[in-house]
Amino acid sequence: MKEKKEKAAIKVTGMHCASCALNIEKSLKKTKGVLSANVNYGSEKAYVDYDPSQTNVEEIHDVIKSRGYGVELENTGDREKQARDKELKRLKTKFAVGAILTSVVFLGAFPEWFPWFPSFLQNPLVLLVLITPVQFWVGSQFYSGFFSALKNRTADMNTLIAVGTSAAYFYSAAVALFPAVFVPEGAMPSLYFDTAGAIIVLILLGRIFEMTAKGRTSEAIKKLMGLRPKKARVLRGSKEMDIEIDDVKAGDIVVVRPGEKIPVDGVVVYGHSTVDESMLTGESMPVEKIKGSQVIGATINKNGMLRFKATKVGKDTVLSQI
Q1: pLDDT at residue 92, as a whole number
Q2: Consecutive H or E run containing 219
């Protein structure tokens, strides 16, 4: 009996590194009814093949949520951009606050290097007060990720950051609050408030760069997809018909007149023309097309009529694969 299979592409939120994607992927593969799973950290999506007789999309969502991550059910391009901009603004605010406080703590932690710095800002208790919001507010996302990983008995980058900075923070806090315990001879041991703050701030900066780059890439790809024509002219018997591009099937004979966009990928069966493929290949000169030549969807037919046999449609076209 042939196994039933359905596909789902699920938007996953809350991933912070490739290890997060791997943890979700492993959990999905262990789920009853899931045939295959691939979680892409870059696109923040989980692609799942499943048997609908054994599981469903809601149960797959529950598995992802149980690992401490979120699922977005419906997300248009505008809503996705708004959510990304909101998160980016929040990260930038945290980074600015963290950078200012950490800079002050760094200057106060080394009076021998910066003797001109105000003496009250060199007091260990003052440094403790200044670094605490950096540790627990600016770095809050690392702690939430750490506790989610701990709950699921896994470890990721958040675990490393939370454990490392917490060790530096709590040791330094103990020294600042109970110096006599650590220095019976009266010599003040080293403080590591500046180290904990610097780690959190620099990694937060990295995430800002990452989110900015992913946002720009996403917008560029959406603009590229916008170049795809909405309709295609195909031969039905001896007549030409305009149909929606999603209704084009592999094997259809598609007609493209001069100046029109090629709707899908295919092989030329009749005609001679040149095609502008610069939007995909970057090649400035039009490419000659004759019988047997490959054509790519969303490129522009320049000066001759072409008839071609559709070979790749829908998600299989070169543009959709990109």
Answers
A1: 94
A2: helix 193-225
